[in-house]
């Protein structure tokens, strides 16, 4: 009888301990609507899960663990688990309403424009820059218009290579601005805990920038999107590093 009670007691302790090692929760919008596919990370164990279609998640963890949440188009959030059930409300990032434009349907959309629309990002405001001349828009189209016109400045800019140099300069400036924004806004402790050493951060960023989604979220300055997209590049990057050793 004593042995039976002892076994029951041991079973209870093991069961209770196992239960205490799980954190469950819900992720909701400010309006109380469940948010699916939110990246949830336990910073103590570096375990990652995504919320289901009802905004629910379950992961290994204990009280006192720091849990972080990231989702495209939402501000990131972090909480300390005070108990084994967590409810988090994510704040939507204000989106600029894109100007409605009439687009020639015969023209194929660029990959960047298509990707931007697919992931629902607004188009950022245009910078006050000199517009590089385009051979088709600024030379060919005016020539076949009624009446035909000749844009000598555009012809000079294209032939001399000025347009190409301007585009290259703008790409470089945008890249440097985007990298500076990422470094100022992304929590690098998270990536260090994931196995990326501080001296490899720049190398990791350049690796991740091959991902079109990383570029898109960087341009849109979307912290939730950039966190998720960078996270998706951690494992491939670490795999590349391991092959170099």
UniProtKB/TrEMBL annotation:
InterPro entries per UniProt: CarboxyPept-like_regulatory
The protein's name: Carboxypeptidase regulatory-like domain-containing protein
Organism: Epilithonimonas mollis
Source organism phylogeny: Bacteria, Pseudomonadati, Bacteroidota, Flavobacteriia, Flavobacteriales
């Amino acid at each position: 009888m004593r042995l039976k009670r002892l076994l029951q007691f041991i079973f209870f302790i093991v069961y209770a301990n196992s239960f205490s090692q799980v954190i469950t929760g819900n992720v909701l919008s400010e309006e109380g609507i469940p948010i699916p596919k939110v990246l949830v990370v336990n910073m103590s164990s570096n375990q990652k899960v995504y919320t289901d279609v009802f905004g629910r998640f379950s992961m290994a963890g204990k009280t006192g663990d720091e849990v972080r949440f990231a989702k495209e188009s939402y501000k990131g959030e972090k909480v300390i688990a005070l108990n084994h059930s967590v409810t988090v409300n994510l704040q939507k990032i204000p989106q600029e309403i894109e100007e409605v434009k009439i687009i020639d349907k015969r023209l194929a959309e660029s990959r960047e424009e298509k990707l931007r629309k697919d992931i629902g990002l607004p188009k950022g405001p245009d910078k006050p820059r000199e517009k590089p001349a385009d051979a088709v828009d600024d030379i060919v189209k005016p020539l076949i218009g009624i009446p035909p016109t000749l844009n000598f400045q555009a012809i000079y800019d294209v032939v001399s290579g000025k347009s190409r140099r301007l585009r290259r300069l703008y790409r470089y400036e945008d890249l440097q601005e985007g990298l500076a924004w990422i470094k100022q806004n992304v929590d690098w402790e998270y990536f260090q805990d994931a196995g990326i050493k501080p001296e490899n951060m720049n190398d990791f960023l350049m690796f991740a920038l091959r991902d079109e989604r990383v570029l898109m979220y960087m341009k849109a300055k979307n912290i939730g999107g950039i966190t998720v997209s960078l996270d998706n590049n951690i494992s491939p990057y670490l795999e590349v590093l391991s092959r170099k050793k």
